[in-house]
Structure formats: C-alpha cells, structure tokens
Amino acid sequence: MKKAIPSCTVGDHGHAEKVHPPASLGRAAQLFRAMGDAQRLRLLDLLKNSELCVTEIVAAVGDKFSTVSQRLGILHREGLLARRRDGNHLHYSLADRHVADLILNALAHANELDAAPTSRKGDD
C-alpha cells in the first residue's frame, strides 16, 4: 500500500498560528497534571464559587483533614489556588478567573463527551 504524501505546503495555509514557547507549554502541562486528579479537580470545583476554610472543605468532601490538606497544597504550589490566613483559619480560593474558566470548560467538555452518541467517542 502506498503511503499518502501531503499535496500542500505550509505557505498554502494562512491560518497557521504561532506556537507557544516550550517553557509555556511545559508550565501549562504542569497545571493540567495538577488538575488531572479527580479528587483535586473536585476541590477546584468546590472552590469555583467562593473562598472556603479548610474545615469547610474537609466537611464538604468527607475526606481526612491530612488528605485534603495535601491536595490543597499541591494545587496551591502549582498556582491554581490562593490562600489567606485568618487567625487559626486557613482559607482557600481559586487563584484567578483563568482557573475557574479552565474548570468550567473542562467539565462542560466532559459532559458533552458523556452525552455524545457512542459512535462519536472514538472518532478522530
């Protein structure tokens, strides 16, 4: 069987966009890795509407305090969460609107994929 050879050149397409620098792509991949755990994504989703104290977060998700703290720490180190201390309370919120948009878009896309007919799920 003959291998298909492209019949166009890069100059044929005026819509090619500039590729982001490798450092930016690597940093974005780190963000996706941090969000790539369902339980960490759950925390981000929980925080999309308001700032919460760690105790409130623990109660909402029903996990151990230490487990939730570890997950929050990962998300904070990656720049996805902001935190502030108020006496003995540690409050977390999403770092900025970009994080909220990432979460909302990812979940909307996941819902679309789940609602799609089975024949579309494996198509490229």
Describe this structure as you would to a colleague.
The chain is elongated and about 65 Å long. Strands 1-3-2 form a 3-stranded antiparallel sheet. Helix 2 (38-46) crosses helix 4 (65-77). It has helices at 22-35, 38-46, 54-61, 65-77, 97-115, 118-121, and strands spanning 52-53, 81-86, 89-94. The mean pLDDT is 90. It is mostly helical and 124 residues long.
SS content category: mainly alpha
Q: Order the strands across the largest sheet as they lie in space.
A: 1-3-2
Number of helices: 6
Number of strands: 3
Q: What value does the average pLDDT take?
A: 90
What distance separates the N and C termini? Answer: 22 Å
Strand content is 5-15%
**In CATH terms, what is the fold-level topology of the domain at 38-116?**
Arc Repressor Mutant, subunit A
From the alpha-carbon coordinates, what is the Rg to the nearest angstrom?
20 Å
- The helix content is 40-55%
> In CATH terms, what is the architecture of the domain at 38-116?
Orthogonal Bundle
Could you state the CATH homologous superfamily of the domain at 38-116? Winged helix-like DNA-binding domain superfamily/Winged helix DNA-binding domain
Please describe the structure with a list of short key phrases separated by commas or semicolons:
124 residues; mainly alpha; Arc Repressor Mutant, subunit A; three-stranded antiparallel sheet; 6 helices; 3 strands
Secondary structure elements and pairings:
Layout: H1 22-35, H2 38-46, E1 52-53, H3 54-61, H4 65-77, E2 81-86, E3 89-94, H5 97-115, H6 118-121
Helix pairs in contact: 2-4
